[in-house]
Specification:
62% of the residues lie in helices and 0% in strands. With 240 residues, the chain is an all-alpha fold. The radius of gyration is 20 Å and the shape is globular.
């Protein structure tokens, strides 16, 4: 794909997590990049906290408080380029934050005049309540939620790219990984007034493009281009 940030070290160096790793907390562009990542990927931490036994309110407090510390105080001393996955850094730092909060009896209370970050965190519990019954460990659930968040972001980017196709794109996206029921190809062909072969070809093109976008999303969460393929394999395994 032309311009793919995964291809070419110069281009890769501009991705969000690599900016954070390179600059630490010192540079404004690093803080902006980190805030963008946190806005995108707060929900896996919320699901992790809930699976660990926190109430909805306490899980909200923990996630909000963690990001306030991370973003407003520039707590990036623990970023280690040799362990360059944002996913790994985020969970490890969050676990330390949760332990610290328990030790001081969770002094950051919900709604008590504490600064709130612009995350749609109130939506977290409605999303969590729709989670299927799952016996995974909190860590395994975190991995799965992370992978599903990446996939969802890729599908939404694909949807935006195909916005001009309207109903056709919406009908095909469930075969790519989007929400909704994936209708049989023959039924789709009849409803779209195209051949079944044309439906299959269109779905194939969208899947190829979705994989490219997903690879780009993953690239933004690792510090080195060489980690992208391994991270993709891990995330696919988490979805299995």
């Amino acid at each position: 794909m032309t311009g793919d940030p995964v291809r070419g070290s110069a281009r890769f160096a501009t991705t969000r997590w690599s900016v954070v790793v390179a600059a630490g907390a010192a540079a404004p562009e690093s803080r902006d990049a980190l805030e963008s990542l946190c806005l995108d990927y707060w929900y896996p931490l919320y699901a992790y906290a809930r699976r660990r036994g926190s109430s909805p309110e306490d899980a909200q407090d923990l996630v909000q408080g963690f990001f306030l510390v991370l973003l407003r105080r520039g707590s990036l001393a623990d970023v280690d380029p040799s362990r360059g996955r944002f996913r790994t850094f985020l969970l490890t730092a969050f676990q330390r934050h949760a332990s610290h909060e328990r030790a001081r009896d969770n002094a950051l209370k919900r709604g008590g005049g504490v600064e709130r970050l612009p995350f749609e965190i109130d939506d977290g519990e409605s999303r969590y309540s729709r989670e299927p019954i799952d016996e995974r460990t909190p860590e395994s659930l975190y991995e799965r939620r992370w992978a599903m968040t990446l996939l969802s972001r890729a599908v939404e980017r694909l949807r935006a790219e195909n916005a001009g196709d309207g109903a056709r794109a919406d009908a095909l996206l469930p075969h790519v990984g989007g929400a909704g029921e994936a209708r049989p190809y023959a039924e789709l062909a009849a409803s779209l007034s195209i051949s079944e072969g044309a439906v299959k070809a269109a779905v194939h093109r969208m899947r190829v493009r979705c994989r490219e976008i997903l690879r780009d999303e993953v690239a933004h969460t690792v510090a080195d281009a060489g980690e992208v393929e391994d991270e993709l394999r891990r995330l696919v395994a988490a979805l299995a």
